[in-house]
Write the structure tokens for this entry.
Amino acid sequence: MTTQSITNWINRSPWRRAFLFISLVLVCAAAYGPAPVAYAQGITWTPANPMNKARSFFVAVELLNGNVLVAGGFDGTVDPPVFADAEIYNWHTGEWTPISPMNSARSAPVALRLEDGRAMVIGGADEFFNVLNSVEIYDPRTDTWSLAAPMNDARFEDFIAVLLPGHRVLVAGGIGSDFLSLSSAEIYDEATNTWTRTGSMNVARQEFAGNPVVLGDGRVLAIGGITDEFVPTATAEIYNSVSGVWTLTGSMNTARADHAAVRLHDGRVLVAGGDSSEEEPRFKSAEIFDPHTGQWTMTGDMTIGRSESEYAAALLPDGRVLVPGGHTDFDTPVSSADLYDPRTGTWSDAGSMSDPRAGHSAVVLHGNRGVLVMGGLNSPPAATASVDIAVETH
């Protein structure tokens, strides 16, 4: 690795933030699917009960009962800056309750809910910034974390984790133990508690999968990211779980990383924002992928450029997309939010949260109770425990 490559990685990676902090301190709807319900008029933000722990770059998983599990994270103002703490939000009462911590401290892992209701947390980096191959599973019935078999490759930072048919989990990409982008992919089999390698991606990529996209036919779409040459890519590729093969599809119009990606109700995929480096302005631009043609089409711009809001982008019940917070510039989180209307291809101002946030998470709550937006960096290197709820107003 050249000195320039090392510098590029440090400038690109969210862990660049960690190191600096420590030292400095996303008219065709009818053609694709059912029409959405009637649109609300706007968004109202209400502060909710804060978490017990300030956290950014953490995981958030909706459990089967509608409660929300959060675990791990980073806060550069505490020691250690990465932790194992976990807690659960009760969507009926709005209260947060601490639960058993994970076996390992983790920041920038990925997580998903298994078919039986347990939550799997995969990889990440520990308090010493070692990249992890370890995996653990939370059982909400017993409030216990158990270690699953480790992955073949250690990985962290916005890699794909997708539930496949047959109680299997696909992971792909991310940053490896050598801090290079990975192209490798592997599948976890719950029945045997084993990881087996599957076809590798055509392009090594990290910072590309904040909201992994599963297409309507079950194939998995990987979009953009940072390659092993430390440059952003516009490429996209699709994984077929039957053949185990990744196939390149049409490339985006803009090479981008740390972007938001959401599958719309009509089956198309919206990608919004992101960046090309920490030094360059964040992208306001957005584009739409049509899985029928494999092509990307530009759509309206957001009101401001945003990156690092990928885990907070949310598809609302009426079919619009909410993208709150994110960085607008280097280490500059914002409280504002954007709202995308797929009927018109336009974005509008969606008001502001109680706190600026980047590296935060969001979950659409049961019972039409809105979008729970949690944590994130509010004043780098500090994370916040604050929480807001976005509700569609009529």
